Structures are given as C-alpha cells and as structure tokens.
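Next comes a concrete protein, fold included:
___
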Amino acid sequence: MLNARAAIVALQEYHPPLGDRSGLRLDFNENTVGASPNCLRRLRDLSLEDLARYPAREPVERVVASFLGIRPEQVLLTNGVDEGIRLLCETYLEVDDEAIIVAPTFAMYEISASETGARVVAAPAGKDFAFPLAGILAAVSPRTRMIAIANPNNPTGTVASTADLLQIAKAAPQAAILVDEAYYEFFGESLLGSIPSAPNLFIARTFSKAYGLAGLRVGVLVGPEVQMRMVRRACSPYNVNAVALALLPVALADTEYVSWYVAETRRGRERLQTALSQLKVPYCPSRANFVLANIGATHKEFVRGMNQHGILVRDRSSDPGCDGWVRFTLGVEEHTNRLLAALAQVLAEIKATAEVAG
C-alpha cells in the first residue's frame, strides 16, 4: 500500500478563505487597485510565440539585482515568497532539525518547515505583540537550522529592529535566518545591506503587495552567493512563468506609480488607526499595509456585517493570541473612505443590537 510520508500525513493544511470574494477585498493584503497600467500594456504586447517558449528567469534576475543594488548571483526569482520559504526549508532542514518561528506569524513558515519532518519551535510574541527577541534566543539550540521572521510581521504589523535581527543571526550561525520583507515598501527599512556581514542571512521580497502582481506569483529570495548556489539546486529551472517575467521589469520601472500607491496606503493606515482610537477599539500599531484590531467577542458578527456592507476583512481569531482580532487591508483613499464609513456603521449596529438584547 502506498503511504505518504509521516510529515505530510501530520501536516496542517492551509485553507485561505477564498469562496465568494465579491466586494471590496480588504482581507488578503492585496493591492486594492492593481499593478501599474504599464503592465497591462506590456501584457497586450505578448505574442503566442512568447507563451510557447520556456521562461528565461536569469535575464530578469539581472534586472532585479540592478534594482536592488546587488549582484545577480545573490538573486533567485521565485513563484511568490511561498516558494522561497519552501526552497530554504528544502535546502537546510532535515528530519528532526528545528525551525524557530514567532507566534503569531505567516502560516507558511510552519507548513513548509513541517513538510521536511523538522520540528517547529514557536516563540510567542510579547505584550502588545512585541517582537520576542529573548524567546527566540532562548529557543536556539544545536539543532536549530532555520529561523523565519516576517518584518513587518503578519498579521500584527509589528517590526523587529535591525540590531535584534542581526543578534539572532549571530547567535545561530548554523541556521538559515530568513527575514521576510514582504511589506518592506510600507515600512521602509531593510536588512538587505547586512547580508555581507551575516553569512547565514536571507531576505525575501514579494511583488504581490505594493506592486500589485499577486496573481502572477512572483517574489525574490536574496542571500550570500555561496548559499544561493545551494538554494538554486533545489529550484526548478522554470519556476516563474513567462508572463510574470515579462511584466516584472515594467512594474519595477514605474517607480512613480508604486510611490503613489505606498503613500496612499500609509495615509490610509494612519487614518484607520486614528478612527479606531476614536471608536475605542484596541489595535496593534502597524508598519505594513494592514492593521490588526481587537473587535472582541463579536468578531464573527462584525466580519459578517462588514461583508454585508460590501467589504471583506480577515478574522484572525484562529492565530495564537489573536482571539477576537480582525485584520484590515489598506489601499487607496477611495477604499479607505469606504472602509471607515462601514467600520463605524457596523460597530454602531452591533452596539444597538446588544442594547436591545440587554
């Protein structure tokens, strides 16, 4: 009888709440208006012959390397950051190794590490979801072979300092240290320049958020050249599709568009946090394109109410320490206006219902 590996049998599947996503989608941290219009023009220029060829990743990796100010040998384009995470796990983790993550954080770190048969060790976030530096350092052991940290973190939007992250890299020289900078553009700080002094440090970036290319599934993994040669061995030669490779240089070139979108999102983030304060709803101050707020016991009713107003938001209650917390994606001013209006109205409706029932 054919049996799957024990690690796969025990694996907790990740099921994003896709279903009917009609309405304003503020639940997946996507770009709310899409990529640069130049991408659509480039897409229309693609020929049937372009689609018939196997995709050539390396020329676009040179473009990305130039954009990031690093050597092409340090760059690997991936099928979204998800693939970058999995490639690191496949390259460095073996059965019974240990991988350290923060709790709560992006689910794919635990899933990809567990697939290898490694043991996942979670360091719980501190008060107000503060970065658990002491907890991570205490968890490091001779069996630690990977530490994955989202910076800013998802779903909290909190950040770790450069000093803390480099301290972790120094404390675990035998481990691959992944700093996932998926929300870098909304934060503005990076460890990219620290790779030369940290030989076990890897940086992941995505083009799904600020650049609006989530549907094309393209990200980038950056690390020391000697280590990236090993990671490339685990990677398919045609892992990024031809359409993504054609559009990515166009998206990178339109810096004015990305700057505009990031500025709109940051202003929306501040407006939402101000509104939550005025409504006396606790929230976690964010440096990403989303805000996590504590709606409390009525979180399910709240999410349904927002949906009825045509706005999707993400209930994060199943994450460790997040019972009652809901995440809101931010975008352009028009969408922020709709979010704030619906937020106040739904909270008022829930309060009125509670008063009647009481």
